[in-house]
Description:
Layout: H1 3-10, E1 14-17, E2 20-23, H2 45-60, H3 74-87, H4 98-110, H5 132-149, H6 152-167, H7 186-201, H8 208-220, E3 229-230, E4 237-238, H9 239-251, H10 260-270, H11 277-291, H12 293-310, E5 312-314, E6 317-319, H13 329-341
Antiparallel strand pairs: 1-2, 3-4, 5-6
Helix pairs in contact: 2-13, 3-4, 3-5, 3-13, 5-6, 5-7, 6-7, 7-8, 7-9, 9-10, 9-11, 11-12, 11-13
Amino acid sequence: xxxxxxKRLLVIGLIASQSAIVPVLAVDKSxxxxxxxxxxVVIDAQTDSAIKGALxxxxxxxxxxxxxxxxxxxxxxxxYVLMAFLATGNLPGEGDYGKPVARGVQYLLDCVGPDGYxxxxxxxxxxxxxxxxxHGIASIALGEIYGQTKxxxxxxxxxxxxxxxxxxxxxxxxxxxxxxxxxxxxxVTVLQVVALRAAKNAGLDVPQETIEKAVAYVKSCxxxxxxxFDYQPGQKPGFARTCAAIYSLQVCGKYxxxxxxxxxxxxxxxKESKEWFTYGHFYAAPAKYMxxxxxxxxxxxxxxxxxxxxxxxxxxxxxxxPIDGKLGDIYATAVYTxxxxxxxxxxxxxxx
Length: 352
């Protein structure tokens, strides 16, 4: 019996809503506490069909190296696609897409240099197609995979990646695009602190002081007048950076922080903005999910309707063009698939 099948059988309860039944993930390392009332949101047949078609599309786009890419940032693209597969219960060697997941994980492991930097160019090769943004999303994916598999090969490389993140933290608590402690912005910082939290959840040694310094930096980017968050302290707030900020605060355990709900309301005002739509909604969905209740139910209903209106069907495959026109179909399909699949509750990072 596969690990994925065993998880399904070990579920103690099945949350019923009307006629639909959704399995609740039993996480290996500790009991999962889902945000309040997220089980009220279920995946209907149309959405399930789109998710399954999207996974077929993504699997078909994997390169011989194991990476996913559209001629740029293969480390980041691979991290995003792996998160979509994880959100649907696929692990390396397990599930319908266990093989492509295993190949994608191996690609990321092969990209980890001796210094821990996850770079598509290899250690010391200029890194023009990789930066700490790529490193962050790849580290999050590896952290989630290690947490569920305890694969020693993943542990060894993840430990190096975490060590590099720790060394690159700026004095103000954040991170910038290069792997050194020289400045900070909220975009790069969020990915690093979430990667650290994922690694810590999986059992790696991450100083809590490092996470708290990062949380302090994120909070320093808040715009008190609007409840939104700036790219850097004192700048203009925006939708995507606000989504990223409260996503990171909640992943770090700040579920009831007084900054969360004003930021959530700010997100509601600008949710249809096309500027960095895909990037912002990668954070927005888990941020709303972790709030739970009616907030999540309303948000999922809205984004589900929008994505199903825009899905492209080609035989048994489904895909999306990015709503904001940025970074291509593989990236957009990975992010939108993860969003639609969130009611499956498969990503431990987003559970309380």
